[in-house]
């Protein structure tokens, strides 16, 4: 199944999402996950699926921080990594505004720069989110896995067209964020 096939993109290449970049699952190997030792001393931002769902394009805040022990059982991901939720809030996406850790209920995506970008993939997932959520629904707890994500087929334009789309959509998102900040300031 090609997730975004239409008469408008019939000349684009059909590619697997795994052909556009690398997917890797977040890490949180220690149990219990709320062990206070994981957070002692802080210093390493930790983002959860709910914060990804609430974000607008970028994750700009976090509520928890791992300490050194927490980081040892996790991984600190680079800024601009695309986060994709695979459990609880399925297929929600956002980019890291700064380096953060995230649990194994989140997949990180780093694009192959010559064929795609993290921002383009953000917009891809924004477009196909409902289809993925519908495919995942019905189990005891809705979830997907990394194999499912990497096997998805999608119609993709060349990199130049992708970059133009990202430029336009990002400008709209930036304007929306700016207007939200203005409204918040006026309300305050």
Element layout with pairings:
Layout: E1 13-16, E2 21-25, E3 44-46, H1 49-54, E4 58-59, E5 64-66, H2 68-72, E6 82-85, E7 93-96, E8 106-111, H3 118-136, H4 146-151, E9 153-156, H5 159-187
Parallel strand pairs: 4-7
Antiparallel strand pairs: 1-9, 2-8, 3-5, 6-7, 6-8
Quick rundown:
The chain is α+β, with helices and mostly antiparallel strands. The protein has helices spanning 49-54, 68-72, 118-136, 146-151, 159-187, and strands at residues 13-16, 21-25, 44-46, 58-59, 64-66, 82-85, 93-96, 106-111, 153-156.
Structural class: alpha+beta
Share of residues in strands: 15-25%
- General shape: globular
Strand order of the largest sheet: 2-8-6-7-4
User: Would you report the number of β strands?
Assistant: 9
Number of distinct helices:
5
Q: Return the average pLDDT rounded to an integer.
A: 91
Oligomer: single chain
Largest sheet: 5 strands, mixed
N-to-C order of helices and strands: EEEHEEHEEEHHEH
First and last CA, distance:
48 Å
**What Rg do the Cα atoms give?**
17 Å
Uncertain residue segments: none
Helical fraction equals 25-40%
């Amino acid at each position: 199944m090609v997730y975004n096939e239409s008469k408008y993109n019939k000349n684009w290449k059909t590619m697997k999402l795994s052909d556009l970049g690398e997917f890797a699952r977040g890490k949180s190997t220690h149990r219990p996950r709320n062990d206070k030792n994981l957070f002692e001393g802080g210093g390493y931002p930790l983002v959860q699926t709910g914060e990804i769902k609430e974000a607008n394009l970028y994750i700009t805040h976090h509520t928890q921080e791992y300490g050194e022990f927490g980081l040892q059982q996790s991984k600190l991901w680079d800024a601009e990594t695309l986060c994709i939720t695979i459990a609880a809030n399925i297929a929600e996406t956002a980019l890291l505004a700064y380096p953060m850790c995230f649990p194994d209920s989140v997949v990180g995506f780093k694009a192959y720069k010559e064929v795609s970008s993290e921002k383009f993939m953000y917009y891809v997932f924004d477009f196909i989110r409902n289809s993925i959520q519908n495919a995942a629904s019905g189990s005891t707890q809705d979830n997907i896995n990394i194999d499912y994500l990497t096997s998805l087929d999608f119609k993709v334009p060349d990199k130049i067209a992708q970059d133009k789309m990202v430029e336009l959509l990002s400008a709209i998102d930036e304007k929306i964020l700016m207007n939200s900040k203005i409204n918040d300031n006026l309300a305050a």
